[in-house]
Amino acid sequence: MEVNQDIVNNKIIQAKAGSQSAYNYLLNTHWNMVYRFQLDRTKDEFKAEEITIQTFAKAFNQLESFDNAYKFSTWLITISKNLHIDLLRKESSRQRHFSKDEKMNKVVDDNPTAEDALITEQSLSELKGHIKKLKPHYQEMINLRYFQEMSYKEMAQTLNEPMSNVKVKLLRARRLLSDLIEKEQ
């Protein structure tokens, strides 16, 4: 489905002015394209969803820098591609390193040390504190997605809402949570 670029550019202007319905339009209109792009690349539904969410979050945060001389969809795909490359780099840097001289692979101990466990526990406690500052429906979105690890479909069924609403609310919840964390640093 080809999207009218004039309508998209108009919605971008509205979104820059703070219109939530314009953000919703941009998300709903381009979600499937970005998600399919990532699904083709990752072959993993969860990773594709996560990268797609990150793509829209980054795009909406940097909307002021968008140049309407280009297609919005191309800009989104570029952001998405770069996020995927970043993810691949992080994953490859975490891979186990093997000595050239050894014939057998060494198994790297990935178990957290006592210090790591304490830091993780403190970080989780701080994160939960930030989440509690959100409005209850945003708390619920974060809880369902990240603590109960529900898919968008499961969340939509649980909340009895359309999936597009769930996606937008989760995006908004993540953005508000990010803003809270940045304010307190």
UniProtKB/TrEMBL annotation:
The keyword Ribonucleoprotein does not apply. Its EC number is 2.7.7.6. Keywords: Nucleotidyltransferase, Sigma factor, Transcription, Transcription regulation, Transferase. The keyword Transcription applies. One of its GO terms (biological process) is DNA-templated transcription initiation. GO terms for molecular function: DNA binding; DNA-directed RNA polymerase activity; sigma factor activity. Residues 131-177 form the RNA polymerase sigma factor 70 region 4 type domain. PANTHER family: RNA POLYMERASE ECF-TYPE SIGMA FACTO, RNA POLYMERASE SIGMA FACTOR. Belongs to the sigma-70 factor family. ECF subfamily. This is RNA polymerase sigma-70 factor.
